């Protein structure tokens, strides 16, 4: 998937657990786990804003675009 979620990296940098973030952002641990695993299909801007506020980071610290290799490319 071309969008990589780096939530685990920011949590480690802030020395915060996923459950503590869930409580601070008022989102279920299950939904936050889906986001962290990269399986989420969407995220609300209000949720992204709350996560950034709590972790004191920018959206680009959490989300990264990694282009997929073109079909047939060696790698």
Name given to the CATH architecture = Orthogonal Bundle
Sheet having the most strands: 2 strands, antiparallel
Query: Major sheet: order of its strands?
Result: 1-2
CATH superfamily: lambda repressor-like DNA-binding domains
Number of domains: 1
* Beta-strand residue fraction: 5-15%
Give the oligomeric state of the chains in this entry, treating copies of one chain as homo and distinct chains as hetero.
Answer: single chain
The overall pLDDT average reads 92
Shape: elongated
SSE ordering: EHHHHHE
In the predicted model, the low-confidence regions spanning at least 5 consecutive residues are: none
Our count of helices gives: 5
Question: What is the CATH first-level class name?
Answer: Mainly Alpha
CATH topology: 434 Repressor (Amino-terminal Domain)
Structural class label: mainly alpha
Radius of gyration: 14 Å
> Termini, distance in Å?
16 Å
Organism: Hymenobacter edaphi
Protein name: Transcriptional regulator
Pfam families: HTH_26
InterPro entries: Cro/C1-type_HTH, Lambda_DNA-bd_dom_sf
Could you give the topology of this structure?
Elements: E1 3-5, H1 7-14, H2 18-25, H3 29-37, H4 45-55, H5 59-62, E2 63-65
How would you describe the overall organization of this protein?
This protein has 75 residues and is mainly α. The protein has a single domain (3-56), classed as 434 Repressor (Amino-terminal Domain). It is 53% helix and 8% strand. It has helices spanning 7-14, 18-25, 29-37, 45-55, 59-62, and strands at residues 3-5, 63-65. The chain has a two-stranded antiparallel ribbon. The mean pLDDT is 92.
């Amino acid at each position: 998937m071309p969008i990589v979620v780096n939530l685990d990296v920011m949590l480690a940098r802030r020395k915060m657990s996923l459950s503590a973030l869930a409580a601070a952002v008022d989102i279920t641990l299950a939904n936050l786990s889906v986001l962290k695993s990269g399986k989420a299909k969407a995220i609300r801007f209000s949720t992204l804003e709350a996560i950034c506020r709590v972790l004191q980071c920018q959206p680009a610290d959490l989300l990264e675009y990694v282009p997929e290799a073109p079909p047939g490319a060696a790698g």
